[in-house]
C-alpha cells in the first residue's frame, strides 16, 4: 500500500498473523524498560507533549489484527446503552409521542460513533488514556479532575440496579412467589457485581465476557416477544418515515415533565455522558495500538501491571508505522460500527416496535414514568401470549439493565481510579493500579448500597429514591459533560497530534456538529435550571421563549462553537485514519 507517496509497504508488514491477532482476545501487555528508551523529539513528527512528561520513542507499532480478534470494547458500550436509552427511555418517548422523533435517535447514535472514534484516537497513537492526554493541556491538569466530578455526579446513583431489581420482583410474583421489595434484590445485585469484578484476574476480561453474555440474552428474548405479540408492518413504515422527518417533534417534548426524559434519551442514544470516555481505558486494557506497552487493571487474583507516567510514540515519517496506525484506526472503527452502531439501532427498532404493538403511540400519561410503561407492556404481553411470554419480556429487560449497572460500576471505578492514579496515586507506595481500582470499587459499591438501603428503611421521607428518579437524575450532568469533552477531545486531537495522526476534515466538522447538538441541550437545560432557582415564571421555564437567562446561556454556547471551529477546522486535512 502507498502512504502519501512515501513508497510501498508489503501487506504483511501492516497486518498481524492469525496467531498474533488471537492474543488480543484476552488483552496484550508488553512491558518495556523505559530507562532504555529515548525521549521523543519535540518535532512535528511526534505528538506535542504540552505540560506533561516527554513521550518515549518506540520504533515499532504493533501490527494490526483482524476485526474478529478485537470484538469487545464496543460491546461493553452497547450493553451500557441498551439498559437505559434503548430499553427504557426511547420506547417511553415513542409510546408518548409516536415515531416522528426517531430521526433524533439515529442521529444521536451516529454522533456518538464519531466522538467515540476520536476518543480512541489518542490511545491508539500514544498508549495513554484520554485523561492523560487532557492533563497535558494545562499545568494543573484541570480537565481530568472536572470529568471525575462529572462522572460521580452523573453515575454515582444506582438507578440501573434498582430498575433491574424492580423487574426481577415482578417476575417472582408472576411465577407464584411472594411479593418482595426491590431494595434487597438490588443490594444482592450490587454485591454480585463487586465479587465478579474484584475477584477476577484481569478485570476487563470478566466485564467483557459478562456483557457479551447479557447482551446475547437480551436480543433473542425481546425478538421472540415481538414476534409473539405481533409484528405490525405499519409501525415499521411509521418508524421509517420518522427516521427522515428531520426537525419534527411534538411541542410537548420541550415542556414540563418530558424534557428531562428527552435530554437523557438523547444523551443515551448509544451510551452517554463521561461513560463514552471509558472507551479509551478499555482499549488500553486490550493493548490496542501503542497501548500494548501499558498495564491492565488486575483483580484480587491477578498481578499488578504498571501504567507508565507517559505515553509511547512512533515516528510518523516512517511509512510502515504510519500504515499500521491507520490500520488500527480502521479496524477499531469497524468494531465500533458493527457492535455499537448497528446493534444499537437494531435494539431500538425492536423495543420501539414492541412498545407500539403493546401500548400504541399516543400515551402522554406515561411520559417519563418508566416503571409504569414496562408494567403496562407486561400486562399487554400476557394478554396476548400468556404468563411465560411476559416473564421472558421482563427477564430480557432485567438482563440488559443489569448489564448496564455492571458496566457503569466498572466504568465509574475505572474512570475515577484512573484519574486519581495518574494524577496522584502513582506517587505513593500504597496506591498501585490494582489497589486503586479495588479501593474505589469497594467505596462505590458500599455507597450505592447505602443509597438503596436509605430508600428501604427511610420511609416516606425518602420515597423519592425510587428507580425512575435514580435514572432521570443523571440527565443534566450527562449532557453537559458530553458537550465539554467533545470540545476538549477535538482540540486535543487536532492541535496536539501530528497532522498525519489527527482527524480528517469530515470528522472535524462532525465534532462541530456534536458540539452543536449536545451544546444546545446543555444551554437549554442550564437555562431552565437557573430560571427554576431564580423563580422565573413557568411559561419561560417550559418553553423556548426568550428570556435574559436563556439569552446568556445561548450566547455562551455560540461563543464556544466559534472558539472550537476556529481551532479545529483550519489547517491541512489528513487521510482517513
Describe the structure.
There is one protein chain. Mean pLDDT is 87; it is low at 1-11 and 460-468. This protein has 577 residues and is an all-alpha fold. Helix 3 (73-97) packs antiparallel against helix 11, helix 3 (73-97) packs parallel to helix 13 and helix 13 (319-359) packs across helix 14. It has a two-stranded parallel sheet. The protein contains 21 helices and 2 strands. The two termini are 14 Å apart.
**What is the CA-based Rg, rounded?**
24 Å
Low-confidence stretches: 1-11, 460-468
Mean pLDDT: 87
Q: How is the main sheet built?
A: 2 strands, parallel
Helix-strand sequence = HEHHHHHHHHHHHEHHHHHHHHH
Which word captures the global form? globular
Write the layout of secondary structure elements.
Blueprint: H1 18-22, E1 56-57, H2 67-70, H3 73-97, H4 102-126, H5 130-135, H6 142-155, H7 159-174, H8 182-198, H9 203-229, H10 233-243, H11 258-267, H12 278-286, E2 312-313, H13 319-359, H14 370-385, H15 387-423, H16 433-457, H17 467-472, H18 475-495, H19 505-534, H20 538-541, H21 548-568
Parallel strand pairs: 1-2
Helix pairs in contact: 3-9, 3-11, 3-13, 3-15, 4-10, 4-12, 4-13, 4-18, 4-19, 6-15, 6-18, 7-8, 7-15, 8-15, 8-16, 9-13, 9-15, 11-18, 13-14, 14-15, 15-16, 18-19, 18-21, 19-21
Features:
577 residues; mainly alpha; 21 helices; disordered N terminus
Short structural description:
With 577 residues, this protein is mainly alpha-helical. Helix content is 64%, strand content 1%.
Amino acid at each position: 500500500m502507498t502512504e502519501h507517496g512515501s513508497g510501498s509497504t508489503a501487506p504483511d508488514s501492516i497486518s498481524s498473523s492469525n496467531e498474533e491477532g488471537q492474543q488480543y482476545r484476552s488483552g496484550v501487555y508488553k512491558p518495556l524498560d523505559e530507562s532504555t528508551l529515548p525521549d521523543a523529539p519535540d518535532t512535528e513528527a511526534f505528538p506535542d507533549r504540552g505540560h506533561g512528561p516527554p513521550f518515549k520513542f518506540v520504533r515499532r507499532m504493533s501490527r494490526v489484527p483482524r476485526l474478529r480478534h478485537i470484538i469487545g470494547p464496543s460491546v461493553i458500550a452497547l450493553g451500557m446503552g441498551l439498559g437505559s436509552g434503548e430499553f427504557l427511555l426511547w420506547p417511553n418517548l415513542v409510546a408518548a409521542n409516536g415515531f416522528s422523533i426517531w430521526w433524533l435517535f439515529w442521529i444521536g447514535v451516529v454522533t456518538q460513533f464519531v466522538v467515540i472514534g476520536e476518543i480512541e484516537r489518542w490511545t491508539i497513537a500514544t498508549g495513554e488514556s484520554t485523561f492523560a492526554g487532557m492533563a497535558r493541556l494545562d499545568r494543573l491538569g484541570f480537565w481530568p479532575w472536572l470529568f471525575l466530578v462529572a462522572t460521580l455526579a452523573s453515575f454515582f446513583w444506582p438507578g440501573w440496579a434498582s430498575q433491574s431489581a424492580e423487574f426481577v420482583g415482578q417476575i417472582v410474583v408472576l411465577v407464584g412467589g411472594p411479593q418482595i421489595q426491590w431494595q434487597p434484590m438490588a443490594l444482592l445485585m450490587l454485591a454480585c457485581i463487586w465479587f465478579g469484578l474484584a475477584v477476577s484476574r484481569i478485570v476487563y476480561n470478566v466485564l467483557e465476557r459478562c456483557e457479551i453474555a447479557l447482551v446475547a440474552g437480551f436480543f433473542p428474548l425481546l425478538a421472540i416477544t415481538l414476534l409473539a405479540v405481533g409484528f405490525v408492518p405499519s409501525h415499521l413504515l411509521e418508524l421509517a418515515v420518522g427516521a427522515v422527518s428531520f426537525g419534527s417533534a411534538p411541542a410537548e417534548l420541550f415542556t414540563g415533565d418530558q424534557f428531562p426524559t428527552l435530554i437523557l434519551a438523547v444523551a443515551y442514544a448509544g451510551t452517554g455522558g463521561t461513560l463514552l470516555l471509558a472507551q479509551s481505558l478499555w482499549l488500553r486494557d486490550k493493548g490496542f495500538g501503542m497501548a500494548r506497552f501499558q498495564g491492565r487493571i488486575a483483580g484480587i487474583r491477578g498481578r499488578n501491571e504498571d501504567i507508565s507516567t507517559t505515553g509511547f510514540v512512533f515516528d510518523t515519517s516512517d511509512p510502515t508505522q504510519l500504515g499500521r496506525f491507520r490500520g488500527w484506526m480502521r479496524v477499531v472503527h469497524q468494531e465500533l460500527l458493527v457492535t455499537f452502531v448497528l446493534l444499537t439501532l437494531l435494539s431500538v427498532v425492536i423495543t420501539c416496535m414492541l412498545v407500539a404493538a403493546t401500548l400504541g403511540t399516543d400515551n402522554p400519561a406515561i411520559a417519563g414514568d418508566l416503571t409504569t410503561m414496562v408494567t403496562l407492556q407486561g400486562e399487554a404481553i400476557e394478554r396476548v401470549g400468556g404468563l411465560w411470554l411476559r416473564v421472558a419480556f421482563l427477564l430480557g429487560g432485567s438482563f440488559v439493565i443489569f448489564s448496564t449497572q455492571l458496566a457503569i460500576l466498572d466504568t465509574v471505578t475505572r474512570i475515577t481510579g484512573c484519574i486519581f492514579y495518574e494524577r496522584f496515586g502513582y506517587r505513593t507506595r500504597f496506591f498501585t493500579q490494582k489497589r486503586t481500582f479495588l479501593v474505589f470499587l469497594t467505596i462505590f459499591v458500599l455507597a450505592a448500597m447505602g443509597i438503596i438501603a436509605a430508600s428501604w428503611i427511610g420511609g416516606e421521607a425518602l420515597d423519592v429514591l425510587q428507580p425512575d428518579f435514580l435514572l432521570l437524575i443523571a440527565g443534566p450532568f450527562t449532557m453537559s459533560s458530553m458537550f465539554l469533552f467533545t470540545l476538549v477531545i477535538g482540540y486535543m486531537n487536532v492541535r496536539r497530534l501530528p497532522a498525519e495522526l489527527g482527524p480528517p476534515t469530515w470528522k472535524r466538522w462532525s465534532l462541530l456538529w456534536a458540539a452543536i447538538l449536545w451544546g444546545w441541550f446543555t444551554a437549554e437545560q442550564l437555562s431552565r435550571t437557573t430560571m427554576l432557582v431564580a423563580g422565573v415564571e413557568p411559561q419561560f421555564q417550559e418553553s423556548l421563549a426568550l428570556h435574559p437567562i436563556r439569552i446568556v446561556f445561548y450566547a455562551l454556547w455560540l461563543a464556544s462553537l466559534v472558539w472550537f471551529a476556529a481551532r479545529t477546522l483550519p489547517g491541512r486535512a489528513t487521510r482517513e485514519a
